[in-house]
Batch of 2 targets.
Target 1
Amino acid sequence: MIKHKIRILKKNWLCSNTFSLECVWKGIEPEPGQFLQIQVSDIYEPLLNRPISIANYEKNRLLLIVKVVGKGTRMLSEKESGEDLIVLGPFGRKLSIERKKSLIIAGGIGIAPLYFLAQKLRKQKIDFTLVYGAKTPAELILKNALKKIASDVVFIAETGMRKKGTALSVLKDLPIGDYKIGYVCGPKPMLKELQAMKLKVPFYAFCEDFLGCGCGLCLGCAIKYYGTYKRICEDGPVFRLDGIEFNG
């Protein structure tokens, strides 16, 4: 695996626990769903790299969106503009985008890879609705940008809004039959709940999990998919939601 050194152009805190890094990286052509492995320190402490979804790539500009959840991401949050990042990748299979009216559902930091997807759909003039839920209104990041990108966008939070709920609670008010394909990213309980709803829309899940090596060697991210074990990092990270066996 080849390591790359890329320069941070801009760092921006999007809310109290989530920040973005805009970097220069020439010569790659990532697609929605792919991710990078980032070395967060020069002393290999923590030992394992951190998997971070690609939130956008345009004109040699790479956008990463990171939520601080542990030691590694906290160390990454201490990086500043002008510093370098050591990265590996991109990893994961490229998503084949279908030209069908689409429904995008994001929960929490799951908006990061779906932000990349939303921009691809817009560029290809594919009609889509984006539903985005978080714990609090403050954690609903990129709102202005999403309003400009999405054909229709719905924001909802579990607290602090007149109408409270989750991204999935919004679905009862949408004309689900109008959508021909769906994309979802969020915490595992959210994916399980959506799967149990058995909507007549084929959903593709952007799976987030602890990825050790990021290239399929350690088997730490294996999931059961249509009866066979698959590696999120190598075979995914995007899978048909109905084929994932969460208890497998």
Note: The helical segments are 71-77, 111-123, 143-149, 188-197, 232-235.
Target 2
Amino acid sequence: MKENHRLNSEGYHDPTAFALIEKENSLEYRVNTLIKVLKNIVALSGFELIARIEIKDKHSGREFR
């Protein structure tokens, strides 16, 4: 049976939780999270980022700068 993320555990509609789930699944959210993680890895490794990070989504072909 497929879960309905629009409903909470009691079966009531929960638009706030659904909006958060949709946001977390969005491409922009995933890109922003990835860039933050990459920057943290660079800093924790003792390096400094000196240029912009540019990435491209393999599925959509969309580029992020």
Note: The chain has two helices and two strands.
